[in-house]
Amino acid sequence: MGKSYMPYSDAAFHSWQGVLIPGVVANATAWNIPATEITDLQTLQTRWKTAYADTGKLVYECLTKLVLLMCMS
To answer: Which among 54, 32, 33 is positioned nearest to 42, based on CA atoms?
Structure first.
């Protein structure tokens, strides 16, 4: 099986989709992609961005709490 073109890590995927999706949207008419498909794609991108941001916040909060606990002991 060939190598996947989709990045494996969340950070790499986040960057990749941030370039890919605007390109798809910009070329939707030329590539005959229906508007409903573009809307669905953008909805999924919004969900991804929210989840990715929330994960980063969660990691930051956990690390902050861990450092505070270490300082208290």
So the answer is: 33
